[in-house]
Amino acid sequence: MSEPGFPVDRRRLMAGIGALAGTNLLPLSAFAQTRARVTIIGGGFGGATAARMLRDLLPSARITLLEPNATYTACPFSNLVIGGTRSITDQHFSYDALSLSGITVIPEHATDVDPVARVVTCGDGRTLAYDRLILSPGIDFRWNAIEGYDAAAVDRMPHAWKAGPGTLRLRDQLLAMEDGGLVVMSVPAPPFRCPPGPYERASLIANYLKNHKPSSRLLILDSQDAFSKMPLFKEAWERHYPDHLEWRAASQDGRVICVDPSSLTLSTDFEDIRADVANVIPPQKAGEIAERAGVADATGWCPIDATSFESVLQPGIHVIGDATIAAPMPKSAFSANLQAKVCAIAVARLLSAMDAQPTVLANTCYSFITPDEAVSIAGVYSNAGGKFTNIDGAGGLSQLGAGADVRKAEAAQAEAWFGAITGEAFG
């Protein structure tokens, strides 16, 4: 990684990644004209992208996507909804384009996987046999890992870590709070989805308070002493929100150990804090179906071969996106989208009697610090030898001390990225 504070030439970076990743692409005639059955569970940025790419690579294969929601609600940009500057409808995407492309989209939950028989059971009782299975199950929560925070607590203390009704619940609680109120956010220990996400959210909540409820403030109680893009966020907070945002590290008694939803109280080792609005982000694990499929280990996450994304626990099952153990590659929408492409190529090769081949992957994560300014971090990774490793000298952070024009340009890049990634996944 380049040193923090040096600008990243993203156009050159991504062009290089594209060229290297392109070495994995073969003419379509190189792939078998197979009628193989590929089932994909989960229709987020990972699953939807994998389905569309496999449709292109293996036009004769039978591609099935299991996704219970008729409309996908995207997590990236959803913090802008919480901050009151974006509509939730801007986060909605349908699966119509996937269906029109020849992918069979089944609006059902996957309730079980038999990895020996290679059969998926759906919520309506039907079963689907597969030759290769791709899991993109996202995350689930470790209820009661924070004492008192269970599934019933989300109405009073929303996590909003899956975009949708919880996003609106947290937004509405902020709107209803009287000026002078205290908003408290609890951040878990890693790993969790979108490492910079809590701090982007904190920035946008602080922006809302500054402009609409100036006597209010936000307290972040963190289970970490350092976090992604920390110098950039702290610089932004000092510049924009010195009177509205306070961050308390784990070593400063920031770790929340229990909550009382009825009184909106969050307790650390030494203090009980009464909130007017409480945003509790709980510890996480891979989506439940990963455990049922036998691809999650004792950590709750899914170990994979990085070259093929095939589970190291269950042959024939590939796992992509937030559910994977893919460090140093983070759990992000950008990662899921690119992992889906690499996995789709690997599956197409394996079904065509070819080995999966190593390539280069990347991640760029944009975070808004105001509704029209953003910062970013980029990383580039190799998956050679079945392991993810950083590529030295590639990637880096946005420049510290940059002016508003630079930050606004990054926000525009974020908008362009979001349009591109949603177009690739949902058409």
What does this 3D model show about the protein?
The chain is an alpha/beta fold. It has 10 helices and 25 strands. A 5-stranded parallel β-sheet has the order 5-2-1-9-20, with helices on one face. A hairpin with a 4-residue loop joins strand 15 and strand 16. Helix 2 crosses helix 10 and helix 6 runs parallel beside helix 7. The two termini are 33 Å apart.
The chain-level structural class is alpha/beta
Total strand count, please?
25
| Adjacency order of strands in the biggest sheet | 5-2-1-9-20
- Over the alpha carbons, how many angstroms does the gyration radius reach? 21 Å
Helix content: 25-40%
User: What is the average of the pLDDT values?
Assistant: 94
Stretches where pLDDT is under 50 for at least 5 consecutive residues are 1-23
**Can you tell me the overall shape?**
globular
Query: Which range does the strand content fall in?
Result: 15-25%
Main pleated-sheet profile:
5 strands, parallel
Q: Calculate the terminal CA-CA distance, rounded to whole Å.
A: 33 Å
Number of helical elements: 10
